[in-house]
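seq as requested:
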Amino acid sequence: MILEPVPNMKRDTIESDMVENRSKQLWAAVLIGAIEDVKKLAVTKSHDSVSKEEAKAWFQSDSKEIGSFLWICEIFNLDHDCVRTSIAKNYNRAADFSDQFTYEE
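struct tokens:
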């Protein structure tokens, strides 16, 4: 079976979509990794205050630069306040994030 070549315009669109998907996979992994880091900090016995402060700072930053928490939420159409609330609700007590993350029940 011989496949017909894809017209250039179609091929460019397909390649562009593939790059966008890979890029989104990367940024999804960054967000998931950051949430996993918070989760690990919440259950760890060690008190690595530098790591906790870095995690809090990243999630609470108002920066919209590429790679920032708000920027990643934007590309996935996520409500950043809902994500922060979820993190607070699930990981506040053990990780001592109460001074940065708040939520209401």
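The radius of gyration is 19 Å.
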